[in-house]
UniProtKB/TrEMBL annotation:
It comes from Phaetusa simplex (large-billed tern). WD repeats lie at residues 21-63, 65-106. The keyword DNA repair does not apply. The keyword Repeat applies. It holds the Pfam family WD40. This is Coronin.
Amino acid sequence: QVWQIPDYVPVRNITEPVVTLEGHSKRVGIISWHPTARNVLLSAGCDNLVILWNVGTGEMLLVLEDMHTDLIYNVGWNRNGSLLVTTCKDKKVRVIDPRKQQVVAEKAKPHDGARPIRAIFMADGKIFTTGFSKMSERQLGLWDLVRDGGSRPGQRRPGDPGDTPSDGGDVEEVWEGGTHHVSLLSPSPPQSDLFQDDLYPDTPGPEPALEADEWLSGKDAEPILISLRDGYVPVKNRELKVVKKNILDSKPPPGPRRSHSTCEPDVSRPALEEVLEEIRALKETVQAQEKRISDLENKLCQFTNGTD
């Protein structure tokens, strides 16, 4: 279910979702919005399926099946939303092209431990993984799966250019078991009250770069960036509207045309009176139950006060 949270403080409880998406046969544990396309939502469930939805129309766009043999641990988009990276209980990291519905690269056992593995895309296209060794030591890995077909990890080594600590924090890099491990220490505090572009670079904003149909047809676009210099100011009119793809698909049954001046009611008089009578009966029942509840509350007060 997708819920619309208003920008203002609601005066009543939100009880109805904007849209309900139905397609998984088991519990859904992962959802993720597309980074650049409007209203495209990913869901992954315990049925080992990944489904892509157009929330704006409430329709299912793509179903990625027969790609995972076991429980999916996590799913992540790359920067422009053209690829997915997934981790699975079968100890494989997969890179998937969702529109072609095929696995373009995979890596078996990036970490040897039995505990779950997580993976995300970096901005440069490399894949960053977290996991554990056989001795339950935490490991971090950086891999060039797309470029090398999963054959080798990232090629930067300690001492290479770019491995020296930066002003934003100290970085210690080591290799162990063929995996690139990174340990991040706490960043140094800023030395100036002025806005620092190197610490706060432009970041993807809320505005989509593509429509859902454009992305589905094969078009890609980089995220639309916003500056953090003046803080984040939310845009207006961001309300999600769910519409049918073609409202004319639901045509009325064929039959004799009627004039616009025809005043035949849709509901017959006897049926209307029956509904009104049922409403009156329900009201009487509610009033009787309220009186009974009031009498019981009074008796309870008497017992509590010891008067009976």
